[in-house]
Amino acid sequence: MTFKELTNNEFDRFIASFPLKSVFEMTEYGSTMIGQEEDPHYLGLYDNQNALIGATLLLIKKDHGFKYGLCPRGPLLDFRIENNVKAFTNGLVDFAKKQGLVAIKINPLLIKSIYNIKDKKVMNNPEYPASFNNIITAGFYHLGYNNYFEALKPRFEAIININKSAGEVFLSFEKETKTKIRSASNKGVVIYKGNEDNIEDLLKLIAKKYHRQGNYFYDLYAYYKKNNNIDLYYAKLDVHKYLKHCQDEYNKCMLDSQEINELVMASKKENQGLINQKIDADKKFERAKRNIAQANAITASNPDGLILASMLILKNSNTAYVVMDGMDPRFKSFNAKQLLIWAVLQKYVDKKFVTLNLGGCSNPTLKQNKFAGLNEFKTNFGANIYEYAGDFEIVTNKPLYFMYHNALVSGK
């Protein structure tokens, strides 16, 4: 077997044929990370018939003055074959030593379990134990089964199977989600396809939850755009439609309130049922008053409309991955994010995509889960939660690694 550095074209051809798809194991991602001061290398293992049987993107970054290697969602390799895992690992370590790396962390697409939350079923991968053991036997150390977002890439992801009709997908949604989608549409939320000019709007929505060097998303868009592997969609409130919606609601509630008031007044004796209806009608009328006041204020401040949510999606073959999304928390009640996901999902169904990955979530088996709301939001769209193995690390220079580890602990 031969392990060597690949050209971009060689790597691209391999990932196109490899059955598992990751948007992070692409030359576009490697090029993007140059702007984050990480050096990309594409490495591969050839068998004795000179066929490429495994490959990975290796990012080399400097951390506390030391060089460290990262394989995001890599290697792409059949981990069931022990000899191949050993050969790939040996080649990776040799390359790392020549580059002066202290260690390498891998984060492979090795599925441990799939959780069907709706049907309360767990599907365990029967080939996982042997694959896991092959990685350990090759010399890697497992960094543990983290529950949240401590790994290089999320250890849990919410993935929707969209290899069916849009109607079938919609039926798999929870009732609450369906109602919110209809509500958003009725209120005047409209979905648009954007471009690099709309990245700034996304950055405003995610400013407090995501930290990258400012050029990251612009670089991401520029490189993935070359092969049409990126989409940006956003949800915008048509303020004039919203104002009309509120006016219609106000008029209806006013008439309902007047009608029930007349019935109460005409009643010759106290009727508790009518009184309860009046209380309910009055509450709705007051809410309609507040809504129309809000609609007038929003329209006056944003006559051209208001962006409520945005989503950036990377694509690899028939897989779409929500790499980042954001929502204006002031207008959560508009349910723009629910409508945005539904609209995007329909577009990829029409394009014959197989999966829409909604991104990271947390361990669904935890009884006390600080991200339970995030999990519920995503699984309400019929998503299953995929659990991966997590991070593995192999030390390639023990003396320097000891110094590196001490630097991390001391924070120097």
What does this structure look like?
There is one protein chain. The chain is α+β, with helices and mostly antiparallel strands and 412 residues long. The chain folds into 3 domains: 2-109 and 126-142 and 390-410, Aminopeptidase, CATH 3.40.630; 158-235 and 308-388, Aminopeptidase (3-Layer(aba) Sandwich), CATH 3.40.630; 240-301. It is built from 13 helices and 16 strands. It has helices spanning 8-17, 27-34, 82-99, 128-137, 166-171, 175-186, 199-206, 216-225, 239-266, 272-301, 336-350, 372-379, 398-410; strands spanning 2-5, 38-46, 52-63, 66-71, 101-106, 111-116, 121-124, 141-142, 156-161, 189-193, 230-237, 306-316, 319-327, 355-361, 384-388, 392-395. The strands form 2 sheets. Strands 7-6-15-9-14-13-12-11-10 form a 9-stranded mixed sheet. Strands 1-2-3-4-5-16-8 form a 7-stranded mixed sheet. A hairpin with a 4-residue loop joins strand 6 and strand 7 (121-124). Helix 2 runs antiparallel to helix 8 (216-225) and helix 9 (239-266) packs antiparallel against helix 10 (272-301). The radius of gyration is 26 Å and the shape is elongated. The protein starts with a strand and ends with a helix.
